Amino acid sequence: MNMICIMCPMGCPLTVEENNGVITVQGHTCPRGKKYGEQEFTAPVRVLTTLVKRADGGMASAKTSGPIPKDKVREAAECVGKIVVSADVKIGDIIEENFYADGVNLVITGVAQ
Ligand code: SF4
Question: Whose CA is nearest to atom 4 of ligand 1?
C-alpha cells in the first residue's frame, strides 16, 4: 500500500506491506512516519474538525479531542450536523463524551462573536 505521511509538511511517500503478519514501512524519514504507516495500514484514524449549530443561529467550531476510526468519520460528521448547542457555549465545552471512540470527546474549539 502506498500513501503519503501527513504527520508533517514533508509529506514523505510511504510504502507499507505485510508479510506473514509482519508489517514493514519504507520511505519514512523519522519514527513518526513509521508509526503513521503502521496505523494507517492496520486501523486508520482521523481527528474530525467540524462546525456545530448554535441555538441563536450562529455556528461554533468543534473537533474531536483525539482520533476516531476513519470508517466512522462520515457517520460522526452526520451526527454533528444534527447537534444544536446553546448560544452561550464556550471554547473547551464538551458537546459529547466518548464520541465514536472511548475517551475521545467532541469539544468546542471556537465561537464566532
Ligand atoms: S516520515 Fe517524518 S519527516 Fe516524513 S512526513 Fe512523516 S513525520 Fe514528516
Answer: 12
Nearest to 66 by CA among 47, 49, 84: 47
User: pLDDT of 24-72, one tens digit each?
Assistant: 999 999 999 999 999 999 999 999 999 999 999 999 999 999 999 999 9
Q: Which of 3, 8, 15, 38 to mutate to test the pocket of ligand 1 (most atoms within 8 A of CB)?
A: 8
Return the amino acid letter for 95: I
Q: Is 51 in the pocket of ligand 1 (CB under 6 A)?
A: no
C-beta of 7 in contact with ligand 1 (< 6 A): yes
Distance of alpha carbon 65 from alpha carbon 83, whole angstroms: 17
For the chain, domain boundaries: 2-42, 49-111
pTM (global) more than 0.90: no
CATH fold of 49-111: CPE0013-like fold (3.10.530)
Q: What is the pLDDT of residues 70-98, one digit of tens each?
A: 999 999 999 999 999 999 999 999 999 99
